[in-house]
């Protein structure tokens, strides 16, 4: 009697992420792209690649570019996209210091005073 029991036992967990709620793009803390949206993460127990039992679900922030994800927590959310430089999230840049350099010499583009001006002057 030859007996072969070779049914593949493929099971595991699979996480499905679906968009949820406000889909306004936000700045990703990791890749700094405006690709973070709120989503719902559902974990399924799957058997032979078929999701069977929903295990748990949680609300997350998810970045569609670098796959960064973090559970949504009270009192914090990724910064919104604004039109200002660097989104207003970072401290403003200090003014450049090269303006402090003194400007030596005569201004450029001025003809130096010469004898030509003296010759045109006719005293009364
Ligand atoms: Zn990202």
From TrEMBL:
<dbReference type="Pfam" id="PF17032">
    <property type="entry name" value="Zn_ribbon_15"/>
</dbReference>
<dbReference type="InterPro" id="IPR031493">
    <property type="entry name" value="Zinc_ribbon_15"/>
</dbReference>
<feature type="compositionally biased region" description="Pro residues">
    <location>
        <begin position="104"/>
        <end position="115"/>
    </location>
</feature>
<feature type="domain" description="Zinc-ribbon 15">
    <location>
        <begin position="27"/>
        <end position="73"/>
    </location>
</feature>
<feature type="region of interest" description="Disordered">
    <location>
        <begin position="83"/>
        <end position="124"/>
    </location>
</feature>
<protein>
    <recommendedName>
        <fullName>Zinc-ribbon 15 domain-containing protein</fullName>
    </recommendedName>
</protein>
